[in-house]
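Lecture notes, continued. The same structure-token format from the folding unit now serves as the input rather than the output. Read the line below as a description of shape only.
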């Protein structure tokens, strides 16, 4: 599906939205954004931003978890 491909490109590349739309077969940025929004409930730029923020939050949470686990590990004192 073209929108799934667009999602992947939005997350894995920094390509402009117009280029992503063209790559998956939309000749018009506005039409691509309208179709994308109909499928996802948000614009391509909102999707990219939300997913990146979620990714950063998850990575941060993992780092914090690791930090506290290392603090609590009694073998670290040996």
């Amino acid at each position: 599906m073209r929108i799934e491909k667009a999602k992947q490109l939005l997350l894995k590349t920094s390509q402009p939205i117009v280029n992503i739309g063209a790559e998956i077969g939309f000749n018009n940025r506005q039409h691509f954004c309208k179709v994308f929004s109909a499928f996802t409930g948000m614009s391509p730029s909102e999707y990219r931003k939300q997913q990146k923020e979620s990714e950063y939050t998850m990575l941060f949470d993992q780092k914090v978890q690791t930090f506290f686990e290392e603090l609590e590990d009694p073998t670290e004192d040996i």
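Point for the exam: The mean pLDDT is 90.
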